[in-house]
Amino acid sequence: RYRKNTYLFIYYLIQFCGHSWIFTNMTVRFFSFGEDSMVDTFYAIGLVMRLCQSLSLLELLHIYVGIEPSHLLPRFLQLTERIIILFVVITSQEEVQEKYVVCVLFIFWNLLDMVRYTYSMLSVIGISYAILTWLSQTLWMPIYPLCVLAEAFAIYQSLPYFESFGTYSTKLPFDLAIYFPYVLKLYLMMLFIGMYFTYSHLYSERRDVLRIFPVKKKKV
Questions:
Q1: For 29-67, what is each residue's pLDDT tens digit?
Q2: How far apart are CA 44 and CA 169, in angstroms?
Q3: Do 25 and 47 touch, CB atoms closer than 8 A?
C-alpha cells in the first residue's frame, strides 16, 4: 500500500505540475500580449498539453488494476474526448490550431485538472480540506458542459479543413471509402450522448462524496 500511494502521489504531482505550468504560461502570455497570445496558444504549450494528456491514459490502467478507486467507463469517455479533440482534430490541422477555441479549451481542461489532481494528490497521503473537496466535486458542474460545447465547436470549425485536405479520408477495397468529415459528424452526436452519461456519473459521485465528507473533514 505504501508503494501504491507513493506511485500515485508522484503521478498526481507530475500531472499537477504540468497543468499548473500550462495555466500559468497561458495567464502570463495573455497579460503580456493580450488577445494575440490566444492565436499561438497551441504552438507555445501544445507539446506539454499533449504529454499531459498522453500520460493521463495511465489512469485507465490504474482503475483496471484497482489502484485507483473509480469507474472505468466514465473515465474512458472523458479521456477519449480529449484525445480525439487534441490529437485528431487540433494537432492534425494547422489552421485549427490558430483558432480561439483552442485557448478556451485549454483553459477549461487545465482548471478542472489542477483542482482534480491537487485533491487526488492530497487524498492519497490522507489530507483533505473542506473547500478543496467541495471545489473538486463542484467545479466540473458548470465547466464540463462548457468543455463539451467548446469541443463540439472545435470539430465544427475543423470540418472545412478535413473536407478540403482529405485528412484521414481513405479509399477501401470494393469501391468503398471512409470520408472522415462524416465520421466527425457522427462523433459530434455521440459527444453529447457521452456528456449525459458522464455528467450523471459525476453527479452521483459528487453526492456520495459530499454525503460522507463531514465524517472526514480534515485528516493529517
A1: 988 888 888 888 999 999 999 999 999 999 999 999 989
A2: 29
A3: no
Nearest partner of 148 among 88, 184, 188, 176, judged by Cα: 188
Q: Which sequence spans correspond to the domains of the chain? A: 1-212
Per residue in 5-34, pLDDT (tens digit) is: 999 999 999 999 999 999 999 999 988 888
205 is a catalytic site residue: no
Q: Which residues of 109-134 are buried (b: 16+ CB within 10 A; e: fewer)?
A: bbbbbbbbbbbbbbbbeeebeeeebe
The one catalytic residue in 59, 68, 81, 151 is 151
pLDDT at 121 over 50: yes
Residue 199, phi then psi, degrees to nearest 5: -60, -40
User: Residue 151 catalytic?
Assistant: yes
d(CA 203, CA 125): 25
Of 117, 119, 144, 187, catalytic:
144
